[in-house]
Design goal:
By secondary structure, the chain is an alpha/beta fold. 40% of the residues lie in helices and 12% in strands. Helix 7 crosses helix 11. The radius of gyration is 20 Å and the shape is globular. Keywords: Oxidoreductase.
Length: 386
């Protein structure tokens, strides 16, 4: 039997675990990560994204999944992780390191295979290093340890360059390319700069991560964990984001609510050509699927990140409301026992959010579509100095 393509397997909503780190939380071990993972599964989420670079995230996610294994066996969800980034300023894309990293991730996640493995933050290394890592991952794929291979990072241009390089040098396209903070109310560069190039390079799926711009697009501003203020956004961008947050407050909204809804809902359509057909997962809290039954068109894939149960609950309320507004959405709402006018309400909510997002973009002015430098000026891979 031929292997199903990733676009047929990956659900349109992925639970990201970058929040299970000291960047976003002062003590990630104090979070109820096991409870969050179980709640995510109960809500019908069927894919989890993590990385060895995210401190204890792989271990915490693995413990949560292991605790739920009786009801949610390994074949009921997808696992996505990464290789290559060792620390903030240390990268090792060598074949030996890549293979050792995959083995360690499998142990931490209590699994003998991984659905997707990315080369993490490819902008920090050379094209030759990326090619070495991709070839090593594909060897593991041929052994059945990995199913799909991709790259992740911040600069859209660099992601496109690496997708094109891999296709040119290996004759095989990447399965998946994940961008973060590049399709938000602040920046639409993933669509305007990257989409056509990535499609042309044969990439199947392009998930959009961090619709809050790594936490920047919130009323409270960028998150501060035990590592202090690490966010790369310059003061000018932070200042206009604060003004945008004030505008939203003046109109009875929070910037983060507008940003989450607009980012996920807009990418469902805009990212559809590099999206997925989704895979239904029964939401035990509402009695409905996380994707529309009989979904025939592809939906753009988003990665969400939460730290607390209330954040997950609010995000899933938004997600179901977004689905209510799609074609056939009222049937989705009816199956869940929600309001008979849920589809209409969702469309009205979409229009209101689009109006607010449009004004947020106007407030940002020259900071709209701004991209901070990654890697930062003067970056040196400390691994190469040893």
């Amino acid at each position: 039997m031929a292997k199903q393509p990733l676009k047929a397997l990956l659900p349109p909503l992925i639970f990201g675990t970058a929040t299970f780190t000291s960047q976003y939380n002062k003590d990630p071990y104090a979070l109820d990560t096991t409870g969050l993972v179980r709640a995510a599964l109960d809500h019908g989420i069927r894919a989890f994204d993590t990385s060895p670079y995210y401190g204890p995230a792989e271990t915490l996610l693995g413990e949560g999944l292991a605790a739920a294994r009786t009801e949610y066996p390994r074949n009921s969800y997808l696992l996505l992780t990464k290789v290559g980034r060792i620390a903030g300023d240390s990268f090792d894309y060598s074949a030996a390191s890549v293979k050792a990293s995959v083995k360690r991730s499998c142990e931490r996640l209590h699994t003998d295979f991984l659905d997707v493995v990315y080369c993490h933050d490819v902008e920090f290394v050379s094209g030759a290093e990326v090619l070495e890592a991709i070839r090593a991952l594909r060897e593991l794929r041929n052994e059945g340890v990995i199913k799909f291979v991709g790259v992740s990072g911040y600069p859209v241009e660099r992601l496109c360059e690496m997708a094109e390089l891999v296709l040119k040098e290996t004759g095989e396209p990447l399965d998946i390319v994940m961008s973060y903070a590049n399709y938000t109310v602040q920046s639409e560069r993933l669509a305007s700069v990257g989409l056509e190039r990535l499609k042309k390079a044969g990439v199947q799926v392009v998930p959009n991560a961090s619709v809050l711009g790594m936490g920047l697009l919130r009323a409270g501003g960028a998150p501060v964990g035990s590592q202090g203020d690490w966010h790369p956004a310059p003061e000018g961008l932070r200042a206009v984001v604060a003004k945008a947050a004030e505008f939203c407050e003046d109109h009875g909204e929070k910037l983060e609510v507008v940003a989450i809804r607009w980012g996920i809902e807009s990418w469902l359509k805009v990212g559809g050509e590099v999206g997925s057909y989704g895979r239904p997962g029964e939401d035990h809290t509402r009695g409905s699927a996380t994707t529309l039954e009989g979904q025939e068109s592809r939906l753009g894939v988003s990665v969400i990140g939460v730290s607390r149960h209330d954040e997950l609950e609010k995000t899933m309320l938004v997600w179901h409301s977004i689905l209510d507004g799609l074609e056939g959405g009222q049937a989705h709402a009816d199956r869940a026992g929600r309001w008979e006018r849920a589809h209409e309400w969702s469309l009205n909510r979409r229009h209101a959010v689009e109006m607010l997002a449009e004004e947020v973009r106007a407030i940002l002015k020259e900071w709209a579509d701004y991209a901070w430098a990654s890697p930062p000026k003067g970056f040196v891979n400390t691994l190469n100095q040893k």
